[in-house]
Design goal:
This protein is mostly helical. Helix content is 73%, strand content 2%. It has helices spanning 4-21, 29-50, 52-82, 88-95, 101-116, 123-148, 157-186, 189-195, 200-226, 234-260, 263-269, 273-300, 316-335, 343-350, 354-366, 391-399, 403-411, 416-432, 438-443, 446-449, and strands spanning 341-342, 370-372, 379-382.
Length: 458
């Protein structure tokens, strides 16, 4: 009879070996789907176990508590101008529905704070602080979603104000105006007559019950589509939004049961118990949002569902290899007079996540090897003619220390034999690559380089 340890070892071998070595393309459709689902769940489990998603969700809870009232105050002022401000309360009640009666009390307190914020009498400094608090929340959300999407750098400061404010000001107006128009249309005599005819009446009842869930899915999809500083496909955002919406609804049902049985927390925390439960629910909501973003990322980049964590530290040789690969593709497009590449296209060609490509591009920009265009999304071009730069000079530039590293090099207590050996390696590289320009390398077809080691590529 097999013991539990035997089953454990077998499961461990499957998850760490067979699951990733199996060629899923050759499997039947059900098994192929099962393998891919297990791979996705395994990678999501790794992301959760790393603790980064938890830390970012907790950070968003803190920022939410600071920014919630200012954000609602700004939205309330804009919506009031359009006459749809009364619909904020039903939306907030739907969000905190798992809190039960305590959720109603939380919403009442929040709206009381919002109504006490008089935007007109705050003055220039107060209004600027209010807008800053609102933007800081969106900025924190972007930072967290950029981490999930391996997006690297955040938006430039000028774009943050324009993009964030359009989301904060225009988004709520469109959503609440659409809801208000829908409610008005349903109350018209013509629509009421149509609804009295079956099956239209029953269909509207079903849609009304499903509508809150659909709004959550669309809200999640909207965040995944617009907030990350990278190009997100609508289909991937929708898949992530659907998964996030299902998780949010399921977690809400479980959390509602937890709240009803949490009378002992009221005895411990007294009146503060409502705030504790609210913070827990906000934390779970942000964590679900980030998990949905992970699903959207892996839907758009299924090749990144791998056993190895892509955020591990890179070796010096790997950094040089990445830099040469990125420089090759940028120069190749330039010398063949093809369209320049964006970060996402480079990520696809090199087969590495966007944040790794962004780090490499940043290194090449610091060395004055690559320049970024002003297009949206940005594309990349060689900063100098590839024919005027040899590959040996490229390696010298990539290996050149930054200013702060130079100070460290001056303080290092080296050994003459080591210095001589390093100089010998540098001379060997220059001798072996003598006469090979970056243009010569870029003119080689990608198939000529694929499958060769870096030393054989030329």
């Amino acid at each position: 009879m097999r013991s539990y340890s035997d089953y454990y070892d077998q499961a461990k071998r499957f998850l760490q070996d067979e699951l990733w070595r199996t060629d899923v393309v050759s499997l039947s459709w059900p098994r192929r789907f099962a393998y891919r689902l297990v791979r996705l769940l395994f990678v999501l489990g790794q992301e959760l176990a790393s603790g980064q998603l938890n830390l970012r969700a907790m950070s968003l809870v803190y920022t939410t508590l600071l920014s919630l009232v200012p954000m609602l105050a700004v939205s309330f002022s804009v919506l009031k101008a359009f006459g749809v401000h009364n619909q904020i309360e039903p939306v907030l009640l739907n969000i905190v529905e798992p809190l039960g009666e305590k959720g109603v009390e939380v919403v009442d307190r929040i709206l009381t704070f919002v109504e006490n914020v008089k935007v007109g009498v705050l003055g220039a400094v107060g209004l600027a602080f209010l807008i800053y608090m609102v933007i800081s929340l969106i900025q924190k959300i972007e930072s967290s979603l950029n981490y999930v999407w391996h997006a690297g750098a955040m938006r430039p400061l000028s774009r943050r104000f324009s993009d964030y404010l359009s989301v904060i000001l225009v988004g709520p107006v469109l959503v609440f105006s659409a809801l208000g128009m829908t409610a008005s249309m349903l109350n018209t005599e013509l629509v009421q007559t149509i609804l009295s005819i079956e099956p239209f009446g029953s269909l509207v009842v079903v849609v009304t019950k499903v509508l809150p869930f659909l709004l959550i899915v669309l809200a999640f999809s909207f965040v995944y589509l617009l907030i990350p500083n990278t190009k997100v496909r609508f289909s991937s955002a929708l898949v992530g939004g659907a998964v996030g919406g299902v998780l949010w609804q399921a977690t809400g049902l479980i959390f509602a049961q937890f709240v009803t049985s949490s009378t002992r927390y009221a005895a411990i925390y007294s009146g503060f118990a409502i705030m504790v439960l609210f913070m827990i629910w906000v934390y779970l909501s942000w964590l679900i949002l980030l998990l949905g973003a992970e699903v959207a990322y892996f839907h758009q980049h299924p090749e990144q569902i791998r056993l190895v964590d892509k955020r591990t530290a890179l070796s010096g040789r790997f950094i040089e290899h990445m830099a040469l690969l990125v420089m090759y593709w940028v120069a190749h497009r330039f010398v063949t007079k093809e369209a320049p590449l964006s970060l996402e296209e480079l990520s696809h060609l090199v087969g590495m996540p966007g944040d790794r490509i962004a780090e490499t591009l940043e290194l090449l920009q610091r060395r004055d090897l690559v320049v970024e265009t002003g297009s949206d999304p940005p594309e990349f071009l060689p900063q100098q003619d590839p024919s005027s730069l040899t590959v040996a000079e490229f390696f010298d530039l990539v290996r050149r220390p930054d200013a702060d590293q130079t100070l460290l090099e001056e303080e290092i207590k080296s050994v003459p034999a080591i210095d001589a050996l390093i100089d010998k390696v540098e001379v060997s590289v220059r001798d072996n690559l003598k006469g090979l320009s970056l243009r010569d390398l870029a003119l080689k077809a990608p198939d000529d380089i694929k499958g060769q080691s870096p030393d054989q590529a030329w």
